[in-house]
Design brief:
heterodimer; A: 274 residues; alpha/beta; six-stranded parallel β-sheet; 6 strands; elongated; B: mainly alpha; extended
Chain lengths: 274, 206
């Protein structure tokens, strides 16, 4: 029995995992979501920005991160649009800005925000840190003078408000990230040298790496994984996929914990008996 | 997404997920298709949003001919296909490595010093007892973890022995937290795909 506990067929684990998640999706338990201090800090930071401010959004992610990042992006963007704050998106990950465009386009239409006036997507720029660093001197140079669609920035009225990525023009930076290059580059090359406050929306796997910067005050809070996204939805009173997904994630995590305990019990008991 | 796009995405998801059962040709087909598409898309995207405007706008229209120099140096990387001249590839590589190393060395110290400053904390007098305990744990965790990596000092004194043991436990707790968060991310990924399959594709989930 103890040997079996250590060698449960992975396919049994997969099937049970899928069943538990599907069950929670069909019949949500409605587990309460307690808002953490870090998420609240982010929410309050955006809430205190005056109308007309410009916020830089770093889209440093790939499709694999969408289930965790999309709910927080939707909640943050809706909050910013509601407060009439302008958005400038940029990405060092080649798929990030394209995914951001797909997510934000319908929200902008819903809030009556005009592309090029109220928000703009500068798109993916090769060169990673070098391009990012260059934007602090001149956004036109750092982006080759075109947006996500390859159209000249001069064609858009918003470009006159943002000649460079400095404190004078940008009031806040939020980086939605799933790896490297990512938030640390914004901190090193833009946030600290220019004194622009910044925060991060990270996938769960990146949270342990980012937490030291939150504790040191270098990041203004953090939206941590799907849990953070659910908390943000609760704060912004915008119930979405994260809040409803927390039940499934909690149950799946519980199931995996049980398997880990079973495996360890099997290991310890078999060692004892031998 | 249109109905056709949804079907293509759903079939590709199932093809990839078939790997969970075992390695098979259907999975391989989906994997190779994705890698090829992603590489092609990345090139097209980079070309239209960076390479092309740099040539047409910066060089040809604005007359920044100096940009031709880095372009030529960058193109030298293709000498890797000419064995006799492959040594020339070291120049673009050297410049790239040098630039990045310089950039990090110039800007990273500020971040690092602020991280060190964050460990200069009070052990008492914080608003709550929990925060006081957190501060002590943070300080001990940092110091003991550093002690674990002191390989030049013998661990024969009790301070070094116990200190490095506490450091080892701290590292293990950090790795456990990282592993737990990795599992959560993978679960979210699975939930995202299931939500798509059951909701957008099969329409059985509202």
């Amino acid at each position: 029995v103890y040997e079996r506990l250590q060698n449960i067929d992975r396919r049994i684990i997969y099937v049970l995992l899928v069943l538990v998640i599907a069950l929670a999706m069909f019949k949500p338990l409605g587990l309460p979501v307690k808002v953490s201090r870090d998420t609240k800090t982010v929410y309050q930071a955006f809430d205190s920005l005056p109308a007309g401010s410009v916020v830089w959004i770093g889209c440093e992610y790939s499709p694999a991160s969408l289930p965790e990042l999309n709910p927080m992006i939707i909640a943050v963007v809706k909050q910013l649009f509601k407060k009439n704050i302008k958005i400038v998106a940029f990405g060092m990950w080649n798929q990030g800005p394209a995914l951001f465009q797909t997510t934000v386009d319908p929200i902008a239409k819903e809030f009556g925000k005009k592309y090029g006036e109220d928000w703009i997507n500068l798109g993916y720029k090769g060169g990673q840190r070098a391009s990012l660093k260059l934007t602090s001197t001149s956004i036109k140079s750092g982006t080759a003078g075109v947006d996500h669609f390859g159209k000249p920035l001069d064609d858009y009225p918003i470009s006159k408000l943002i000649p460079s990525f400095t404190k004078e023009y940008f009031k806040f930076i939020v980086v939605f990230a799933s790896g490297d290059p990512g938030p640390i580059d914004y901190l090193n090359f833009i946030s600290q040298p220019n004194g622009i406050p910044m925060t991060v929306g990270a996938v769960s796997v990146s949270v342990p790496n980012e937490m030291p910067y939150v504790q040191s005050g270098q990041y203004t809070g953090i939206i941590a994984g799907m849990r953070g996204a659910a908390e943000y939805e609760v704060l912004a009173k915008l119930p979405g996929k994260a809040a409803s997904g927390m039940d499934a994630q909690s149950l799946a995590a519980l199931l995996l914990t049980l398997f880990i305990i079973a495996g360890n019990v099997g290991y310890l008991m078999s060692r004892k008996s031998s | 997404m249109t109905e056709t796009q949804t079907w293509v995405a759903a079939i590709c998801t199932l093809m990839i997920m078939s790997f969970l059962w075992k390695e098979n040709p259907v999975y391989r087909l989906a994997e190779y298709t994705y890698v090829g598409l992603a590489a092609g898309w990345s090139f097209g995207n980079t070309f239209h949003t960076f390479i092309k405007p740099t040539i047409t706008q910066d060089i040809l229209k604005d007359g920044k001919y100096i940009f031709v120099v880095p372009v030529l140096i960058g193109l030298m990387i293709y000498f890797m296909y000419v064995p006799k001249l492959s040594w020339l590839t070291r120049y673009p590589l050297g410049i790239t490595v040098g630039y990045n190393a310089g950039l990090i060395l110039a800007y990273q110290p500020t971040t690092f010093i602020k991280q060190m400053q964050a460990t200069f904390i009070r052990f008492y007098g914080a608003p709550t007892l929990g925060m006081n305990i957190n501060n002590v744990l943070l300080f001990l965790g940092v110091v003991c973890t550093l002690m674990y990596f002191f390989f030049t000092i013998k661990r024969d004194s009790p301070l070094m022995r116990y200190g490095s043991t506490v450091g080892r436990v701290t590292i293990l707790i950090a790795l456990g937290a990282a592993f737990g968060n990795t599992v959560l991310t993978r679960l979210s990924l699975l939930m995202g795909r299931l939500s798509f399959l059951l909701g957008d594709w099969a329409h059985v989930l509202k």
